[in-house]
Design brief:
Helices cover about 45% and strands about 10% of the residues. It has about 850 residues and is α/β, with parallel strands linked by helices. The chain has five domains: about 5-60 and about 160-260, Rossmann fold (3-Layer(aba) Sandwich); about 65-155; about 275-320 and about 550-660, no CATH class; about 340-540; about 685-865, no CATH class. The strands form five sheets. A six-stranded parallel β-sheet has the order 12-7-13-14-6-15. Strand 16 (about 785-790) and strand 17 (about 795) form a beta hairpin. The longest helix has 21 residues, at about 405-425. The protein is elongated and about 105 Å long. The model is unreliable at about 300-310 (pLDDT under 50).
């Protein structure tokens, strides 16, 4: 079928173009999603305007599904794992790059590159060991992958008109009737990829009329002529001599755009560049704060209070990295390409699929508990409410590596808890008594109420049951069966989670259930590969949707059609991102091998041409950018991005002498981009307030205020009383317990070791032996006399050692004396303090504080030696 090429120079003036009368009946395919949006906005009368990716996904549904890619990943991982007679480091390299390897295979399939082509290259030149192994893996993969075989066959056939009609009907949303002589007009194909060339060639063979409609300005031919390298007779399209060029006297080219290209096209410049600003951001988060959040506040109610009530367009040369950062922190922005890992249900799925070998780490347990998807239906309890308790017992579980060892250790903790309750009984408790009732009260895992420890054990048992349902007693399973089990687990837990889930997460759950139903493959996979595969699948990286919140720089040509006055933010204009870099060679091929492979595959040569044309493409796109309305165009770059630091502006910025404006978060009039949470004030009765003050004015507690008011705040205002959860502090407390046991019983070293040692099963015997032996090097003393704490309870002052482990005896005594002497002043200071969270006394003693891990004012031991306190 005939193909032709027309050009235009005025994007918003198509209606006066000679070709336009045929537009309304044609199918319009745009190279990018942003151009599709722009054309639809400018030319509403055109019914069928779709992006290339949309069209391909509608025609070849199975191949472009993320579920297909996911299943292929598992299959490829299994092939690599079962490789024999391969060097270990080489096998490891392929396993670490499985996703890159799969992308290469899919790229070659879509580009209609056969294995025989690479085999021919290997005969012409010596290929590397990696390339030989790639050839072997590729062959094995294709032999066993039905989706690849079917897609390869589909690319060899003509496309029936009825299949195209079905695809268009699905995209349009209702049945459409297409003309027998189908006409497809292509927009924005200023470069053509191998995948696009293969598909367009199939359309041509299928008797579809194809018209390239190019934006082209002949005045700047030195730049614009790069387009001719992609669309010419070599690739089956009309020769540039046969293109139909539009010549127009009027031009909407801006002065800056003209001067920019004039420098490259030996064209006479006008007087000079007009003044333009470019903003410099220190980090991505500054950009997020300045641009994204004001337009798309996390709390949508804020939009009423902002002066930006219209949407914005974001474009960047490094859009992929920026989108990944943005969606990780702000997942609700992109509904089409969700990162399920940003939601509890996604993290729950990833973590339960790490249980195949029975291993259970602290990280996995914390993720499962905090997800909200772990619940005890019989007791109506959710593990999310026990996350703090779980953190308090982690030091006791530190050497537990399997689910069974966690359960066994929790059984021990429950038994020890029962013993302590019998040994140190109380009648009527309050928190003062609870904080000193036994030498173990200040050890975090012994301070947790016994019924809550038992409930944690129930949750761990539930994790074990889930693992047993999901994983048979083998190293592999079938894909379909495993994901059907996953779906059943989600279904069974959905009722509980819907009680606490937000509307957005409920939609996520429904969407995820639908995705799991689409996974249908009886092939085997290895459980060890599942976690990584799920991570890619749930993060959206396997989803080939072309709708991203931040568009790539190659999509800026879509902006020249848009009529609305939305702000356009072009960021990432740094020395490393512009001009655009070369497209990576498919892994693990070397450049020389890839170039040789191009000789056997015509579509593949287009990638090499694109890499050679990158500077011209960059100039072309920047020219389009400079023609956009200056009042809505905002240019910027980010100085420190990922591992790159102190990035300078791009060459084009320096060429134009743009005025650099340094961003400062303090320069904005209204820097608030979210509504603060409104805390509800609870009015307490006089009796309650009196009881609270009675507790807070207990002298032991006020000693902590004397040491550090913020420590007092965390320990007795925010929490019931301070406990120590760090293993480092437990070593001090262990020594004190040994001292008390020795002084009270007068027993020998071996007897005390035998009695105390079982209470600390997380430590090895040698560590406990050395600690007890060191304590016994000091002479035994008599127990301190009991002192009255309240009407019914008497405790010795030894308790204060347990309250302040790490402090030297003299320092502790001085602290207690100072607190006693300042008793009234401290109480008055607490009552009149202007700071709700109280001030800190940061310094050497921070290392012994139970709150050091989350106190924002804490000074760490590694940063501060004694004698250099602030």
């Amino acid at each position: 079928m005939i193909s032709e090429v027309y050009t235009y120079s005025e994007p918003k003036d198509w209606r006066n173009h000679v070709l336009y009368p045929s537009f309304t009946e044609a199918i319009h395919i745009c190279a990018t999603n942003n151009q599709k949006n722009g054309i639809r906005e400018c030319y509403e009368e055109l019914k069928h305007v779709y992006s290339f990716r949309q069209f391909m996904k509608a025609l070849y549904v199975d191949w472009y599904k993320s579920e297909t890619t996911f299943q292929q990943y598992l299959r490829l991982s299994k092939i690599i794992s079962e490789l024999e007679h391969v060097k270990l480091n080489l096998k490891h390299a392929f396993h670490s790059n499985t996703i890159s390897l799969l992308e290469s295979i899919r790229f070659f399939v879509e580009s209609d590159v056969s294995i025989s082509s690479l085999e021919q290259v290997s005969k012409d030149k010596a290929i590397t060991e990696k390339e030989e192994l790639f050839l072997r893996i590729w062959q094995t993969f294709i032999n066993g992958d039905t989706a690849t075989q079917q897609h390869h066959k589909a690319l060899q056939k003509k496309i029936p008109i009825n299949k195209i009609q079905t695809a268009i009907s699905n995209l349009y949303g209702s049945d459409v009737s297409l003309k027998k002589e189908l006409h497809i007009i292509l927009h924005g194909f200023y470069f053509v990829t191998p995948e696009q060339q293969v598909f367009l060639s199939i359309l041509r063979r299928s008797n579809v009329k194809i018209t390239f409609f190019h934006y082209y300005d002949g005045r700047y031919s030195d730049t614009f002529d790069f387009i001719k390298a992609f669309v010419n007779e070599r690739f089956g399209w009309p020769s540039p001599e046969n293109w139909v060029y539009e010549f127009t006297e009027k031009s909407s080219t801006t002065k800056n755009a003209h001067n920019f290209l004039a420098a490259y096209d030996s064209f006479a410049q006008t007087e000079g560049f007009e003044k333009m600003d470019i903003k410099s951001y220190n980090s991505f988060f500054d950009f997020l704060q300045d641009v994204v959040l004001p337009a798309y506040p996390i709390n949508r109610e804020m939009k009423k209070n902002t002066d930006k009530t219209h949407e914005i367009t974001l474009i960047s040369p490094n859009a992929d990295q920026l989108n990944e950062l943005l969606i990780s922190y702000y997942p609700e922005l992109n509904k089409k390409k969700r990162n399920f890992l940003s939601y509890p249900v996604g993290r729950f799925l990833v973590n339960i699929n790490q249980l195949s070998n029975g291993k259970l780490t602290e990280e996995i347990v914390l993720e499962l508990f905090s997800s909200g998807w772990l619940a005890d239906e019989s007791m109506k309890e959710n593990a999310q409410e026990y996350t703090y308790d779980l953190r308090q017992i982690l030091s006791f579980m530190q050497d537990c590596e399997t689910i069974d060892s966690w359960i066994l250790r929790l059984d021990q903790l429950i038994e020890y808890g029962k013993v302590l309750e019998k040994t140190f009984p109380v009648d009527v408790e309050n928190r003062v008594i609870r904080s000193m009732r036994s030498p173990f009260s200040r050890i975090s895992h012994f301070s947790i109420p016994l019924h809550r420890v038992k409930q944690i054990r129930v949750f761990i048992q539930h994790i074990k049951e889930i693992a047993e349902k999901l994983f048979a007693k083998s190293s592999s399973g079938t894909i379909s069966l495993h994901f059907e089990q996953l779906r059943i687990i989600l279904e069974s837990k959905k009722k509980n989670i819907e009680l606490i889930a937000e509307d957005d997460e409920r939609k996520i759950i429904e969407e995820l259930e639908g995705k799991l139903k689409q996974i249908n493959d009886d092939s085997e996979f290895l459980y060890d590969d599942l976690q990584t595969a799920l991570h890619f699948y749930l993060s959206g990286k396997l989803n080939e949707e072309d709708e991203s919140y931040i568009s790539g720089f190659i999509e800026v040509d879509g902006e020249m059609f848009k009529t609305s006055e939305r702000d356009i933010y072009l960021t990432g204009l740094d020395e490393n991102s512009l001009p655009l870099g070369a497209k990576d060679v498919p892994w693990p091929l070397q450049l020389e091998t890839f170039e040789k492979l191009c000789e056997y595959n015509l579509p593949l040569q287009l990638q090499a041409i694109r890499n050679r044309s990158n500077k011209l493409i960059s100039r072309y796109l920047f020219f389009i950018t400079l023609n956009l309305p200056s009042q809505t165009l905002n240019l910027s770059w980010i100085k420190n991005f990922l591992e790159l630091t102190e990035l300078q502006p791009a060459l084009y910025v320096k060429q134009m002498g743009l005025n650099i404006v340094e961003y400062s978060p303090f320069s904005k009039k209204d820097n608030q981009t979210y509504l603060p949470f409104k805390f509800e004030m609870k009015n307490s009765s006089a009796e309650e307030m009196e009881s609270i003050y009675d507790d807070l004015t207990f002298k032991d507690y006020l000693v902590e205020y004397e040491l550090c008011p913020k420590r007092f705040y965390y320990g007795y205002v925010v929490d019931e009383y301070s406990t120590f959860s760090e293993d480092f502090m437990h070593q001090f407390l262990f020594s004190f317990i040994v001292q008390v046991a020795r002084n009270a019983s007068k027993e020998s070293f071996s007897t005390v070791l035998k009695e105390v040692s079982p209470l600390f099963p997380q430590w090895n015997d040698f560590k406990k032996y050395i600690s007890v032996k060191k304590t016994f090097e000091y002479r035994a003393t008599n127990l301190e006399p009991l002192r009255k704490v309240n009407e019914n309870y008497y405790y010795s002052n030894t308790r204060k050692k347990f309250q302040f482990p790490g402090l030297k005896n003299q320092d502790r005594e001085n602290l207690i004396n100072n607190a006693n002497n300042s008793f009234r002043e401290i109480i008055e200071e607490i009552k009149t303090s202007d700071s709700p969270s109280m001030v800190s006394k940061s310094g050497y003693n921070c290392r012994f504080c139970p709150h050091v891990n989350y106190c924002i004012d804490a000074v760490y031991a590694i940063d501060l030696a004694k004698g250099s306190e602030p």
